Each structure stands twice: as structure tokens, then as C-alpha cells.
Amino acid sequence: MLTLRESMPPKADIRESMMTTIINKAGLFAMSLLVIASIFASNSLAQSSSLYQKGAENAARHAAAMGAATSASQYAVPRNVVTMKQGSWIYRENKAPPIIKKHDLITIRVDEKQQMLAEGDSERRQTAKYDAQLKDWILLKGLSARPDPQSYGDPMIKADLSTKSRTESDVETIESVTFVVTAVVADIRPNGLLVLEAHKVIQNNEEQWECRLAGICRREDIGPDNTVMSQDIANLRIEKRESGAIRDAYKRGWFTRWFDQFNPF
């Protein structure tokens, strides 16, 4: 007599499947805890923001003005919340503006660029025709004058004049000045504006470069590294002079300057 038996899985497989189920449920439970913690953290950060504090202060003032029985302390932000400074890794406190006094040093980064493009086109035409004849003439004798006919006939003149000129011009200039100079606070205005003055001289053998700078800036325009850009300086005046063999090689002579100034032709 034959007996049929169902094949049963081994005990090791049953234990492994039970452990897998337990691990999956534990992972889901941990993820749920992380989501709940992030929600509470976001709420606490939102409550510590300036907008929430302003809303709480406005609500407290409104409740006091309406004579509500609710105390204003209910709208106060709790002290045990997480602030931006405690909960953010990239939070940086704003540094207080530096205290600047007279005769302090400030670095100026000069980066000035100018570009000008001008185009011109002019055309001029002129046509003239002259036809003149002198019919009467006088003769002076002493204090008297009398007619004096011309023996060769009346003088006549005829002329045709035609002129045409055309001028085209195209000018494009690009200038750039870039350097770094340290200025001295020469004066502080009553309204807090700083008057800056800088002077820099570079001597290289026979070559010499001299730079002068002056202007007015605000305290807020000075960065944390004690640097201000030339674009933030009002009444900016920059003077740059060069002397030496290189300058003498390409500078214009006195006659060329005079000729270019009067432009006789």
C-alpha cells in the first residue's frame, strides 16, 4: 500500500523568511520615524523665523487692542525650538560693519572700461552762376563827379561755380584701466561718507608710472575684506601718468600737437 506525503520546506528556510519579514518591518518603522522627525523640525524652524515672530507680535497687539481675554504670552515663540543657527550647517552670522576712522587704509580695486563708437557721413553740393555787367562809371575830378563812359565797352563778368564734397568718418575707441591701490581716509563727512585719496608710484629703471585716485564712498560699500570697488565710488577721479623711454618713443612732438589742434588743412 502506497502512502502520499506532502513535501515540507526545511526549517532553515522558514527561519530565513521570518528574519527577512522582521527586517523589512523594522526598516519601514525607522523611515516613518525619520519622516515624523523631519516634519517637526521644519515646523520648529518655521516658527523660529522672523516672519513667524512678526506674525505672533501682530497677533498679540491685535488681541490687546480688541480687549481679548487671551494673554499675549500664548502667541510667544517657545524657547525650546530649534533655531536656524542650531539646525543649519551652512548658517553664517552677518558680521558687523567695520569701524572706520580717519586716516585708516582701504583697498580699492579699479576696473574701469569705456567703449565709444561714432559714425558720420556728410555730403555737400553747391552750384552758383554769376552774370554781371557794369554799365555806368563815374570820373572824379576834385570834388566833382561826372559820368565817364568806357571806351572799350561796358565790363562784363560771367562765371559758373559748382562744388561737391563728401565726408565719411568712423571712430571706435576702447579704453580699460585695471589696478589695485590702497587709499587713505582723508576725511569723514557729517553724513558718514568717506573721502578717499590714493597715490601710487612705480619706478622700473627709466620707466615710471604714477597713479592718483580720489573719490567718495559709503561705509556699506566696503566689503568684509576691507575692499571697495571703483564702481561704488562717487566723484571718482583717476589720473595715470607715464614717463620714460617708452613714453618718449610714441608721444607727439610740439609741432604735431599744434598741427592737430588748429587743423589748417
The backbone outline, from C-alpha atoms, is elongated
Would you report the number of β strands?
8
Return Rg in Å: 46 Å
Strand neighbour order, sheet with most strands: 7-1-4-5-6-8
| Low-confidence runs of at least 5 consecutive residues | 1-8, 45-52, 68-73
Task: Give the overall pLDDT as a whole number.
Answer: 76
Structural class call reads alpha+beta
Q: Strand-residue fraction?
A: 35-45%
Helix-strand topology string: HHHEEEEEEEEHH
Largest sheet: 6 strands, mixed
Level of helix content?
Answer: 25-40%
The count of domains is: 3
* Discrete helix count: 5
C-alpha end-to-end distance: 137 Å
Task: Write up what this structure looks like.
- With 265 residues, the protein is α+β, with helices and mostly antiparallel strands.
- It folds into 3 domains: 10-93; 118-171, no CATH class; 173-262, no CATH class.
- The chain contains 5 helices and 8 strands.
- The chain has a 6-stranded mixed β-sheet. The chain has a two-stranded antiparallel ribbon with strand order 2-3.
- Strand 2 (138-141) and strand 3 (144-147) form a beta hairpin.
- The chain is elongated, with a radius of gyration of 46 Å.
- The N and C termini lie far apart (137 Å).
- Residues 1-8, 45-52 and 68-73 have low confidence and may be disordered.
